[in-house]
TrEMBL record:
This is Ubiquitin carboxyl-terminal hydrolase 22. One of its GO terms (molecular function) is hydrolase activity. Gene3D superfamilies: Zinc/RING finger domain, C3HC4 (zinc finger). It comes from Ilyodon furcidens (goldbreast splitfin). The lineage of its organism: Eukaryota, Metazoa, Chordata, Craniata, Vertebrata. It holds the Pfam family zf-UBP. Keywords: Hydrolase, Metal-binding, Ubl conjugation pathway, Zinc, Zinc-finger. It comes from the Eukaryota.
């Protein structure tokens, strides 16, 4: 995979892809409300064997759920040439061409936003998130490379 990420994701990023991805996260991955959790429990079954388990993934191009463990989602991807699927437990995006879970900054942002919304709806509140510097903070860091030593193994 190139440093810029998976190039196959560009084929998915057309038309209403952001809205579609948000709906998938809301309804089938994090399910913030009782209603979406019920819908997920009823509808998230493998379309080939009917199982609820076996690392269920959903095709990002159509409404197909398939087992990752039994390779049902792999068969779908090969037959339909639908190269991307989402893990319904953790929300990771899998590329069947790269044969790996991929990282895409835009998709990751949507995932984080929807996960925060789900936590809020469930009354969990904010969980720890890693610091991601803004453009302004990155610029400040570039212009101020000098670091202060606080202790022998800690610098600012």
């Amino acid at each position: 995979m190139s440093p810029a990420g998976c190039s196959h994701v560009n084929g998915y990023k057309v038309d209403n892809w952001k809205q579609n991805l948000r709906v998938i996260y809301q309804c089938f991955v994090w399910s913030g409300t009782a209603e979406t959790r019920r819908r997920k429990a009823k509808s998230c079954i493998c379309h080939m064997c009917g199982a609820h388990l076996n690392r269920l993934h959903s095709c990002l191009y159509c409404v197909f759920f398939g087992c990752f463990t039994k390779k049902h989602i792999h068969e779908h991807a090969k037959n339909k040439r639908h190269n991307l699927a989402i893990d319904l437990l953790y929300g990771g995006i899998y590329c069947f061409v790269c044969q790996d879970y991929i990282y895409d900054k835009d998709m990751e942002q949507i995932a984080k936003e929807e996960q925060r919304k789900a936590w809020k709806l469930q009354g969990i509140g904010e969980k720890y998130t890693t610091w991601e510097p803004t453009k302004r903070e990155l610029e400040l860091l570039r212009h101020n490379p000098k670091r202060r030593k606080i202790t022998t193994n800690c610098t600012i």
